[in-house]
Design brief:
It is built from no helices and 19 strands. The protein is mostly beta strands and 236 residues long.
Length: 236
């Protein structure tokens, strides 16, 4: 949020970043737009007085980068994350900011990459691809199978895996602390927290994008049960 009743939001179709007024009718909400040429916009976060925009190239190999804009005006300042092989990340769709650091879930690298957003320097990278006999799930804690969502808080990094169908909790150094398999018994829908959603085989569905922490709860975009529908679940 920028303040004064405005917010930067990602518009999916067409892919772009939009500054909107939150108290206006839909027709008059948009104030300005940012549409990076040749790139898709996936996520946005505020870091100090700047706006971090997570982008990816339109096609394979889906090289990502973080563009830094002025939070108020949307003026481009710099970009990072694609300048060297070590820094490069592919297929990233979600990031999280914690203090001076920005954490990126690099889906096709099967890793988490951590940068300082002020200078774009890669500070740490951890994770590798791991598959079990069941190819939908990663083999071991600390290994990833398509990490897609990421949140940071309470001295922990939380990563959801779209293909792995689970959520991992790690230390800030990348050490595995806890693994949460997705099951209806442990999650409740946001729309009706007193009623469990019913899926014949919930483990067959991939997790959606998006994780969010508050003081006592973890919010997660749940299984994509159809092309245009995904529930939001809360871990209580």
């Amino acid at each position: 949020f920028v303040g004064n009743g405005t917010a930067w939001v990602v518009e999916a179709v067409p892919s772009k970043l939009v500054l909107m007024r939150l108290d206006e009718t839909e027709e008059s909400r948009k104030i300005k737009e940012f549409n990076p040429p040749g790139a898709l916009v996936y996520d946005v976060a505020v870091a100090d007085d700047e706006l971090l925009v997570l982008c990816s190239t339109l096609g394979y190999p889906f090289i990502g980068k973080i563009m830094v804009l002025d939070k108020e005006s949307g003026e481009f300042r710099r970009e990072f994350g694609h300048t060297s092989e070590d820094c490069a990340f592919r297929g990233a769709e979600c990031m999280a900011v914690d203090g001076a650091l920005v954490y990126v879930a690099a889906k096709y690298n099967h890793a988490v990459k951590i940068f300082t957003h002020a200078d774009g320097v890669l500070r740490k990278c951890f994770g590798r691809q791991g598959l079990s006999d069941d190819e939908r799930r990663s083999a071991s804690p600390g290994e990833f199978n398509g990490p897609c969502g990421i949140a940071v808080g309470g001295g922990q990094i939380i990563v959801s895996e779209r293909a792995g169908r689970r959520i991992q909790v790690l230390s800030l150094e990348g050490e595995p602390l806890q693994m949460i398999r997705f099951s209806i018994e442990r999650w409740r829908t946001w729309s009706n927290p007193d009623v469990h959603d019913e899926y014949d085989r919930v483990e067959d569905y991939q997790l959606g994008l998006g994780l969010c922490l508050d003081e006592s709860r973890l919010w997660c975009v749940g299984p994509n049960t159809s092309l245009n529908h995904a529930d939001i679940f809360v871990r209580i």
